[in-house]
Design goal:
InterPro entries: Arrestin-like_C (IPR014752), Arrestin-like_N (IPR011021), Arrestin_C-like (IPR011022), Arrestin_domain-protein (IPR050357), Ig_E-set (IPR014756). The chain is elongated and about 90 Å long. Helices cover 8% and strands 40% of the residues. The protein has three helices and 20 strands. The protein has three domains: 129 residues, Immunoglobulin-like (Sandwich), CATH 2.60.40.640; 143 residues, Immunoglobulin-like (Sandwich); 84 residues, no CATH class.
């Protein structure tokens, strides 16, 4: 290094893994054997993403910078021979993606130091990477609870196309999200509705990384593969397998617009060829399966004495006095302060008029029912039209008119009876 015997960056406590929003501090150490003229000594902390279309190429086609902070630790002057230390400290932003390194791109974080020397002199540069771990809490992923499932039905021909058959392949995982080290419980069902034995069933854990360039590049990697036996003609079988999740980067690099990562379990049948994918998520904080998920409240219990009220009467009761709703017949007001008589239980029948938005549902029309829409046999003799031979109480209750309408019907009934008596005499 010429005049420089040591030019190095050290992080406090030799820490190399950090979290978003955390501070990074360290020291720049310089040891010279001779006096060194310099214009400036700077330390830079940088985070960026680079993407290319060629594997393992560092000539990035597209770049995305997350932050870049520069600190000047020494002004123009001369570094005397000996040891020199320059402390530095940077604050990492809170919204930055986790570190990642793939075949066609990287998310990188590094600290660099520069010594600018006068013209025609050699400049010096050194850098040291650090890694950022942005935790993915799987409980924050929408619709993470439950299991991932899918199926496929495949029709095929065999015996040189003479015969046809069908296979039904189903599979599901026990959860939708996992952390490295957890076990994926996989269940596969195969129904062979043909006269030919099927091929083997294969399950693979696949990583799909999409690099956004002018023409997106997709990189597929098979991480784990397990295989099960085929199923004989006309039979069905269930295959259960366990897959241990290896150390992997988390799904969907948040705050990164150039790289997207997804994980799948691919279920495939070799013969006849059929396959489908079960999407899963890989994170850092596992799914909380012990917490009770909010459930729908149970339907309200119905009080038979009130729930089957006539919709028309309910509508009218909202417009009139509520005291006239629960009385079988109106009572004549008495001057004495005696309490009103206790209402007699009655049979309530719905009207044929369409229900209003505030009316009860159709299945609540009748209070006493043998079957929906039918009056029980014990009351089959009741009629909705008042006649002289029917007691006035029942005629009023079964009438579609308001409860006080029998006060207008009674004179008409009296005249009809009188006319009949006059004709007879």
């Amino acid at each position: 290094m010429g005049k420089l015997q040591e030019f190095d960056i050290t992080f406090k406590d030799n820490k190399v893994v950090y979290s978003p929003g955390e501070s990074l501090s360290g020291t720049l150490k310089i040891t010279t054997t001779e006096a060194l003229l310099c214009k400036d000594i700077k330390v830079n902390c940088q985070g960026f993403c680079g993407v290319t279309s060629k594997s393992n190429d560092t000539a990035w086609m597209v770049e995305e910078q997350y932050f870049s902070s520069t600190l000047s630790v020494a002004d123009k002057g001369t570094l005397k021979p000996g040891d020199h230390s320059f402390p530095f400290k940077f604050l990492i932003p809170a919204s930055v993606p986790t570190s990642f390194e793939g075949n066609y791109g990287k998310v990188m974080y590094r600290v660099r130091a520069f010594i600018d020397t006068p013209r025609f002199s050699k400049d010096y540069k050194v850098e040291k990477p650090f890694y950022l771990l942005s935790l993915l809490n799987l409980n924050d992923v929408p619709d993470i609870h439950g299991r991932s499932s899918s199926s496929i039905t495949k029709k095929f021909t065999y015996l040189l196309g003479v015969k046809t058959g069908t296979v039904v392949l189903k599979a599901h995982s026990d959860m939708k999200g996992y952390t490295p080290g957890q076990v994926i419980q996989l269940t596969t069902e195969l129904h062979n509705q043909s006269g030919k034995t099927t091929g083997t069933v294969v399950a693979c854990l696949i990583q799909k990384v999409t690099y956004q360039t002018k023409k997106p590049t997709i990189d597929l990697r098979t991480l784990v593969q397990v295989e099960g036996a085929g199923v004989k003609a006309g039979k069905q079988a269930e295959w259960k397998e366990k897959i241990i999740v290896p150390p992997l980067p988390q799904s969907s690099l948040a705050d990164c617009g150039l790289i997207n990562m997804e994980y799948f379990i691919q279920i495939s049948l070799k013969s006849p060829e059929a396959s489908f994918l079960l999407p899963i998520h890989i994170g850092n904080i596992s799914v909380d399966t012990t917490s009770a998920r909010p459930s729908r409240p149970p339907p309200p219990t119905t009080d038979p004495s009130r729930s089957s009220a006539n919709p028309t009467k309910l509508e009218n009761s909202r417009r009139s006095e509520p005291s006239s709703q629960d009385k079988e017949t109106p009572t004549t007001p008495c001057p004495s302060p005696h309490p009103a008589p206790k209402p007699v239980p009655r049979i309530r029948v719905s009207t044929s008029s369409p229900a209003s938005p505030s009316a009860p549902p159709a299945e609540m029309d009748y209070l006493v029912m043998g079957a929906k829409g039918q009056v029980p046999p014990s009351h089959s003799s009741l009629r909705a039209v008042p006649t002289p031979s029917l007691p006035s109480t029942h005629s009023c209750l079964l009438s579609t008119a308001p409860q006080h309408s029998h006060m207008r019907l009674l004179p008409a009934m009296s005249r009809a009876v009188a006319a009949t008596h006059k004709t007879t005499s």
